[in-house]
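Design job #97: recover the sequence.
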């Protein structure tokens, strides 16, 4: 007995030693990628920034940390973010790091810790399958391109993935584990996913349903009492967030909800294309998709597949309904990626176990158990090689700051030191980076994320979440002193060509629409504002235009710290 215990302890220590080695490698990759993507030096002065959408939340966090409330502009109570819990974490970071230019480090460090914690969680959940499969699962999750990309961009996806994985762990079809064990904790953990991001309410609803389905027991059962307590805590979290939003912003749901689902903004065909891109278009997801299907098929024979099948179908359906995302990288699928990985390795483990025992197999294909096991492992192995290469290439392709982020950052710095009146609005099409780095100024979001009037209007063609704008409101009612575009324009291109592009551009038709708008053409277009350093133009991708009665045509970046590094 003592010898057996010693062997088990040795095996456990070996497993954790291998996991630590994996963590050292993958966390090192995480640090390298965030350093490359989210930092920039301007003549010896360091700046840390996140993805454009995350910087919208960072401006809210900045205002809260500086006593203005959880608002984008002081005095304007519009909830232009969906990630309340994550935004509050950002505000904590603003208090910890007082430097406006580097406060985003706190968020990136939080994601660094969460990425490691998610890797450990996946390893522990897959451990009953054996050390090899547990390490494979942990390695796939910790190096998954979407998890790495959005984590190193400061998004809330890693935390959401951790909470969703923990909430639905009781229903993983892993042999030797009773399905539904520990389900009493699922509702309140899933409710935390809702606190982190509003669409997590779907996870809360599914987890609560599954937990009560598993735990409906006679009165007085201790398991039922724990489930009642967990459900009550989950409901309290959900109700608390909704009541806060209604009281503080005047609406139960974020303004982004109106922006994305009202006024004809949803587009199922766009959502289906987004699903196609995740399942077929992104090569590195092929083993994940095939493995998940095989895992659910094998689990179905043991009547263990229903809970996670419900989750996957419901989440896929939701993402399709809202039209997917405007950005490349499967951001909306990231929360369930670790669960898909665990289902895949569970399927492999079940196939191998069935082959050893001479049972199982894929009868619908007429395949024997041993052949089934080789098919599962072989298909995944063949797919892994090109998929790993595609994922590696993606890391290299995005292993630098996104150019539009740098452009928006530089424009924000220029506006902050421009000396323009601070009571007049500045209109932007990208509501994150530029407003964050010009915190003294009031901004107007022309795409409606932080503007209730635009978000409540009718949708135009365009990318999901970017389908609403009202140039009559933005230019004729708000009358901004400056307009910051979302990119440069071709001055040799005719207005007729730009007008035609308004109807044919399926991603950003608001860009040509602004250029040919009558008010913009007469009051702004001839008044471009140029950025200079020591009489040398500093070119930015986002152009700046002044209203015809605002007498500024250039902004001199006064300090040498504002000159971009070579």
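Job complete. Output follows.
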């Amino acid at each position: 007995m003592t010898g057996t215990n010693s062997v088990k302890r040795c095996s456990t220590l070996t497993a954790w030693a291998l996991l630590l080695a994996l963590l050292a490698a993958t966390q090192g990759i995480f640090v390298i990628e965030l350093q490359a993507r989210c930092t920039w030096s301007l003549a010896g002065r360091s700046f840390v920034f996140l993805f454009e959408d995350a910087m919208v939340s960072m401006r809210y966090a900045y205002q809260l940390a500086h006593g203005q409330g959880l608002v984008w502009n002081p005095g304007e109570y519009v909830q232009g973010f969906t990630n309340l819990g994550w935004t509050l974490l950002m505000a904590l970071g603003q208090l910890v790091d007082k430097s406006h230019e580097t406060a985003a480090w706190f968020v990136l460090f939080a994601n660094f810790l969460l990425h490691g914690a998610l890797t450990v969680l996946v390893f522990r959940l897959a451990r009953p399958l054996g050390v090899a499969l547990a390490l494979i699962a942990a390695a796939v999750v910790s190096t998954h391109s979407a998890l790495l990309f959005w984590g190193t961009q400061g998004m809330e996806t890693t935390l959401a993935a951790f909470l969703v994985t923990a909430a639905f762990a009781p229903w993983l079809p892993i042999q030797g584990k009773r399905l539904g064990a520990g389900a009493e904790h699922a509702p309140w953990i899933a409710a935390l996913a809702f606190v982190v991001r509003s669409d997590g309410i779907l996870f809360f609803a599914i987890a609560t349903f599954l937990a009560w389905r598993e735990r409906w027991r006679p009165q007085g059962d201790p398991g039922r009492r724990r489930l009642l307590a967990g459900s009550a805590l989950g409901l309290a979290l959900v109700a608390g967030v909704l009541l806060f939003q209604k009281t503080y912003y005047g609406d139960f749901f974020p303004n982004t909800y109106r922006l994305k689902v009202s006024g004809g903004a949803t587009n199922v065909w766009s959502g289906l294309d987004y699903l196609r891109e995740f399942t077929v278009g992104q090569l590195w997801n092929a083993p994940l998709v095939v493995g998940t299907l095989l895992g659910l098929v094998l689990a179905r024979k043991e009547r263990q597949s229903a809970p996670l099948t419900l989750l996957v179908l419901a989440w896929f359906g939701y993402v399709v309904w809202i039209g997917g995302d405007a950005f490349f990288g499967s951001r909306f699928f990231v929360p369930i990626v670790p669960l898909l990985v665990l289902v895949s390795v569970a399927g492999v483990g079940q196939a191998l176990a069935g082959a050893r025992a001479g049972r199982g197999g894929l009868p619908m294909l007429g395949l024997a158990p041993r052949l089934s096991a080789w098919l599962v492992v072989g298909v995944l192995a063949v797919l892994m090689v090109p998929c790993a290469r595609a994922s590696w290439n993606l890391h290299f392709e995005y292993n630098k700051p996104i150019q539009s982020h740098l452009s928006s950052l530089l424009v924000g710095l220029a506006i902050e030191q421009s000396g323009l009146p601070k009571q007049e609005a500045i209109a932007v099409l990208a509501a994150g980076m530029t407003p964050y780095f010009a915190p003294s100024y009031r901004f107007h979001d022309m795409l409606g994320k932080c503007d209730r009037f635009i978000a409540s209007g009718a949708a135009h063609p365009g990318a999901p979440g970017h389908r609403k704008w009202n140039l009559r409101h933005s230019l004729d009612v708000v009358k901004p002193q400056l307009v910051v575009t979302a990119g440069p324009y071709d001055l040799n291109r005719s207005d007729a060509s730009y007008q035609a592009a308004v109807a044919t551009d399926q991603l950003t038709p608001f860009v040509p629409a602004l250029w040919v708008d009558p008010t913009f053409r007469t009051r702004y277009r001839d008044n471009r504002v140029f950025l200079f350093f020591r009489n040398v133009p500093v070119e930015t991708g986002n152009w700046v235009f002044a209203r015809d009665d605002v007498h500024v045509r250039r902004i001199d970046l006064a300090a040498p710290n504002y000159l971009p590094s070579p």
